[in-house]
Write a structure and sequence with these properties.
about 230 residues; about 25% strand; five-stranded mixed beta sheet; alpha/beta
């Protein structure tokens, strides 16, 4: 199975191709701090680059995997709309992947807390444990939380987790005070990787293309005027 995976839930544009050799060829665009994400400008170009790096063409691709969030509202809309369009044009099956779980799997530790900066003074967070199987921590399903509420949940965990993601970096102080371990800011474990998106896509069950929707976890920042 050859899987094309993409995720635009964070500021990064992340694309990868899982080849028959089991290797994931990744292409990504990480904007510098303070810069706007370039999902719309970079996504399709990154797809072409990843296919070329893997040495495959569209006729070789078996499945599409796309991060469904939680994350940036605009980024999610761009990524999912693109994936749905590609799936329709190429008659490909499609799998939605949790962005938080993909981030967590990249840590490769016994217990991990994935934390994304949700803006508005909140984070998106969820915890997993084990390796085979890799399972959600009971009572720690994906949710939008204030940092203080997240710290309380961490304190209640019987084993301190490793906290990863840009939200863990931003709220390092409160997480470490609650007992979590947070790697240095520059550690690559804080970045979502195409490898986990592709592998989760390969393991997951395809869904109806038109039923694939973003997992926002909260209301949009902007709402229509009444």
């Amino acid at each position: 199975m050859i899987v094309l995976g993409l995720d635009t839930a964070t500021s990064a544009t992340v694309v990868g191709v899982l080849g028959v050799d089991g290797v994931v060829h990744e292409v990504r665009d990480d904007p510098p701090p303070g810069a706007r994400p370039a999902h719309a400008a970079r996504l399709l170009g990154a797809v072409d680059e990843a296919l070329a790096a893997a040495g495959v063409g569209w006729d070789d691709v078996t499945r599409l995997a796309v991060g469904v969030g939680p994350g940036s509202f605009t980024g999610l809309r761009i990524g999912i709309a693109t994936a749905r369009g590609l799936a329709q044009a190429r008659a490909l099956e499609i799998v939605g992947v949790s962005t938080l779980e993909a981030l967590a799997r990249g840590a490769e530790v016994e217990r991990v807390l994935a934390v994304l900066d949700a803006r508005r003074g909140e984070v998106f967070a969820a915890a997993w444990e084990g390796s085979d199987p890799f399972r959600a921590v009971e009572g720690f399903a994906p949710a939008a939380l204030a940092p203080e509420a997240l710290a309380e949940k961490v304190r209640a965990m019987p084993v301190a987790p490793l906290a990863v993601g840009d939200g863990a970096v931003r709220f390092r102080g409160s997480l470490e005070a609650a007992g979590a371990q947070v790697p240095p800011d520059e550690d690559g474990v804080h970045r979502l990787r195409a490898e986990q998106v592709c592998r989760l896509g390969a393991e997951g069950r395809p869904t109806d293309r038109d039923a694939l929707l973003p997992d926002y976890l909260r209301e949009p920042d902007a709402v229509p005027r009444r």
